[in-house]
């Protein structure tokens, strides 16, 4: 693996999943891989799970790690080219990324969208700029449109819960439903885009997306998914319910108001096939999902967060083993 920016950087999803399950079973077996290697992590936006799981993944591999909160820990960075830098910005991104990539063997980067200009976000202007300036392989810690480390952790979690066996794949397809859920803020589409992109490619999953009208994701990520608009109907017989809010792609960055009854409650979970509740976290309790669901055995959100370690560790392992 030369970089990890989307599922398209993965040659074989099943093989990567197998590697992750093996790594999780013996997380400290590959410490030679990381010896004398450094993983750099740059955050242009806040994080709890991605930051800490990536650090833990690096340690598990015997690698060194540094973390930079760009702009907060460092000089204020100028992003635009051709600017006369006589304002508040003290350092240009051009030098900053070249310097930081000289200090590591793999560079993880988080760059959220601004949700103003769809073309700017969907062309990944910021993330691609970092990638083009980096002298080492880049790993997405969530870009404007995708969050592949999260989706991979979600895949590991579902695989574990069904007792996945790569040789004898599930005889009956596993029904995974991603449902839009309410939220007071306008959120990016990175998590649902990425989840859709991954799960449309898993041949043992029957994948459905359910959302209010007007909240359809970019079709380039949802090809192969069943698209529905009736949440109760979609949840019937679901084995896994993946809840997430996202703002509109069509009416770019706009929230969907007045759909509070899309909150995932125990009544909704009771429509499923003893389904498990999933969310990438952080989650707003009693907005996205009720306490009753989140505090019950139905919820596997902590398993997902735990598996963020092994998705990152597997990806770092794949990249470092070629170095
Ligand atoms: N799920 C996730 O990426 O969490 P953080 O934003 O806290 O890293």
UniProtKB/TrEMBL annotation:
Its EC number is 2.1.3.11. Keywords: Amino-acid biosynthesis, Arginine biosynthesis, Transferase. Residues 191-316 form the Aspartate/ornithine carbamoyltransferase Asp/Orn-binding domain. Pfam families: OTCace, OTCace_N. GO terms for biological process: citrulline biosynthetic process; L-arginine biosynthetic process via ornithine. The keyword Transferase applies. N(2)-succinyl-L-ornithine binds at residues 142, 183, 244, 284. Pathway: Amino-acid biosynthesis; L-arginine biosynthesis. Carbamoyl phosphate binds at residues 47-50, 75, 110, 147-150, 280-281, 308. It catalyses: N(2)-succinyl-L-ornithine + carbamoyl phosphate = N(2)-succinyl-L-citrulline + phosphate + H(+). Homotrimer. Catalyzes the transfer of the carbamoyl group from carbamoyl phosphate to the delta-amino group of N(2)-succinyl-L-ornithine to produce N(2)-succinyl-L-citrulline. Is essential for arginine biosynthesis. This is N-succinylornithine carbamoyltransferase. The gene is argF'.
């Amino acid at each position: 693996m030369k970089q990890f920016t989307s599922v398209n950087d993965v040659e074989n999803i099943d093989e990567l999943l197998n590697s992750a399950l093996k790594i999780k079973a013996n997380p400290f077996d590959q410490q030679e891989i990381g010896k004398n290697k450094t993983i750099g992590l740059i955050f242009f936006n806040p994080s709890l799970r991605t930051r800490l799981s990536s650090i833990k993944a690096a340690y598990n591999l015997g690698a060194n790690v540094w973390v930079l909160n760009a702009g907060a820990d460092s000089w204020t960075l100028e992003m635009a080219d051709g600017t006369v830098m006589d304002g508040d910005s003290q350092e240009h991104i051009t030098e900053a990324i070249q310097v930081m990539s000289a200090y590591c063997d793999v560079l993880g980067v988080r760059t959220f969208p601004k949700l103003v200009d769809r073309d700017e976000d969907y062309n990944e202007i910021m993330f691609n700029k970092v990638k083009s300036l980096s002298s080492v392989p880049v790993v997405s810690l969530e870009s404007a449109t995708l969050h592949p480390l999260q989706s991979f952790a979600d895949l590991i979690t579902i695989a574990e819960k069904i007792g996945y066996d790569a040789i004898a794949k599930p005889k009956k397809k596993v029904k995974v439903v991603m449902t839009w859920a309410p939220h007071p803020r306008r959120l990016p589409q990175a998590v649902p885009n990425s989840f859709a992109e991954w799960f449309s490619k898993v041949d043992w999953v029957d994948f459905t997306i359910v959302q209010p009208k007007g909240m359809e994701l970019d079709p380039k990520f949802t090809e192969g998914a069943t698209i529905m608009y009736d949440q109760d109907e979609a949840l019937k017989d679901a084995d896994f319910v993946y809840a997430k809010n996202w703002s509109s792609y069509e009416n770019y960055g706009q929230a969907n108001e007045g759909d509070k009854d899309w909150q995932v409650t125990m009544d909704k979970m009771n429509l499923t096939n003893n389904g498990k509740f999933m969310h990438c976290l952080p989650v707003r309790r009693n907005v996205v999902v009720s306490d009753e669901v989140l505090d019950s055995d139905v919820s596997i959100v902590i398993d997902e967060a735990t598996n963020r370690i092994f998705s990152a560790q597997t990806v770092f392992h794949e990249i470092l083993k070629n170095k």
